[in-house]
């Protein structure tokens, strides 16, 4: 091994500089998150009021058209998140969690987008969109307790097809004082901060479909600049480039 590379647990060579920058990012994240939250235009809460986001009404209005495009794609054609993103590690170990990406970090997945033209057009009107995908949790699936990478992003779920026994298909989001237990309801949506621990179950014999979108947290100019710098780095990282390559191979 030379001084310019290391090897990860899967035997893949990692540029030493890239690893150093990744470690630096982990060390700086708490400080960066504090700046973001000082400049945030929405409160620091597990569940964020949808009234802060006028674009939500348009997606809910067209939820049936979005649903029809999502369910027209057979689950066998949708790769598991673990297959297209090895970096998601243990949280994507259950291959029953699947993701059909339409857009991510500024890249439009053209083949996928062509199969969902209405949805693809609608998400172009979402300010600060980072990623968008049809997220499928197959019957019996489970995503273990985890949290996201930065306070600079929020997560949106629009329920498209939900099991009849919807109370057994749920997400737990841990607040400072309260455990929020949410069951998806077709045509309805919610926004949450995934830096709060959360866990997902589908303890039914039916599949669950949602439109999952990540957006930049609305912030004033200083935090917005930091967010854009971070996202620029992620866009050009091996993490995103590997996902793009794997999506193209799966399409």
Please, could you describe this protein's structure?
- There is one protein chain.
- The chain has 251 residues and is α+β, with helices and mostly antiparallel strands.
- It has a domain of 175 residues: B-lactam Antibiotic, Isopenicillin N Synthase, Chain (Jelly Rolls, Sandwich).
- The chain has eight helices and 13 strands.
- A seven-stranded antiparallel β-sheet has the order 3-11-8-13-6-4-5.
- A hairpin with a 5-residue loop joins β1 and β2.
- The relative contact order is 0.19.
- The N terminus is likely disordered.
CATH class of the domain at 43-217: Mainly Beta
**Terminal-residue CA separation:** 36 Å
The biggest beta sheet is recorded as: 7 strands, antiparallel
Please trace the helix and strand order, writing H or E for each element. EEHEHHHEEHHEEEEEEEEHH
Helix- and strand-based class?
A: alpha+beta
CATH superfamily of the domain at 43-217: B-lactam Antibiotic, Isopenicillin N Synthase, Chain
Briefly summarize what is shown:
The chain has 8 helices and 13 strands.
Main attributes of the structure:
251 residues, alpha+beta, Jelly Rolls, 8 helices, 13 strands, globular
